[in-house]
Amino acid sequence: MRPWPSPRPALSLRSFCNRHQRPHPTEDTALAESQYSAILQRCASPSSTPLLSGALHTHLLKRGILSLSLFLQNHLLNSYFKAGDISSSLQLFDEMPQRNVVSWSAAIGGLVRCGRHAEAISLFLEMKFRGESPNEFTLVNALNACAVSGDVVLARQLYAQVILLGLEPNVFLMNAFLAGLLRWGKTADAARLFEKFPAKDVVSWNIMLNGYLQLSCFDLWALWCRMNEAGVTPDEFSFSSLLSGLAKTEGLKPGLQAHAQLLKSGHGADTCACNSLADMYLKNQSPLAARKVFDGMPYRDIVSWTQMVSGLADYGDPSAALRALAAMMVAGVKPNRFTLASAFSACSSLASLAEGKKAHCLMLKLGDDEADACVGNALIDMYAKCGAMDEARMVFFSMQGTRTVISWTTMIMGFAQNGSPGEALAVFKEMVASGVLPNYITFICILYACSQGGFLEEGWKLFVSMDRDYGISPGEDHYACIVSLLGKAGRIEEAEALIQSMPFKPGPLLWQTLLAACRVHGDSETGKKATERVLSQDRDDPSTYILMSNIFAHLEDWKGVGRVRRLMENDKVKKVPGCSWIRV
Question: What is the dotted CATH code of the domain comprising 496-584?
Answer without folding.
Answer: 1.25.40
